[in-house]
Design goal:
mainly alpha; Serine Threonine Protein Phosphatase 5, Tetratricopeptide repeat; 64% helix; BTB/POZ_dom; SKP1/BTB/POZ_sf; BTB domain-containing protein
């Protein structure tokens, strides 16, 4: 009755925007509820968790990425959070940037950002002058 000759067996599911390692870790997480995070894999897992609404994994990835914030990755993390519906990650990254603005504006990443994406620079400046910035623990 259950044979391997079904036509559905031949189809391949392509997930182009995440690495094989992240996809494998995601599937492993679904079966075991365990994951070992590394920086780049955390971004891929976040994308998958958001897409497939695995909220506890998304929150875990956000927590990991927030703890890993520094002047080198703050801009890329902020941009990523903006693109992938990471409200807590976005707020935390913006808070980190505002709290470390002296260090941040001296970084090469900021100099490059001014040329390539002035919209994000405007968001950061607005946050620096705003009292409405959500500050998370």
């Amino acid at each position: 009755m259950f044979q391997n000759y079904m036509k559905e067996r031949k189809h391949v599911i392509k997930v182009a925007d995440v690495s094989y390692v992240a996809l494998r870790a995601f599937l492993n997480y679904l079966y075991t509820a365990e994951v070992s995070l590394e920086n780049q894999m955390a971004f891929g897992l976040f994308i998958l968790a958001e897409r497939y609404q695995v909220n506890h994994l998304k929150a875990y990835c956000e927590k990991f990425l927030i703890a890993d914030l520094n002047e080198v990755n703050a801009i890329s993390t902020y941009t990523f959070a903006k693109q992938h519906n990471g409200k807590r990650l976005l707020d935390s990254t913006l808070t980190w940037i505002v709290d470390n603005k002296e260090q941040f504006v001296r970084s090469e990443a900021y100099v490059k950002l001014k040329r390539t994406n002035p919209g994000i620079v405007a968001d950061i400046l607005e946050a620096c002058f705003s009292n409405d910035l959500l500050i998370l623990p």
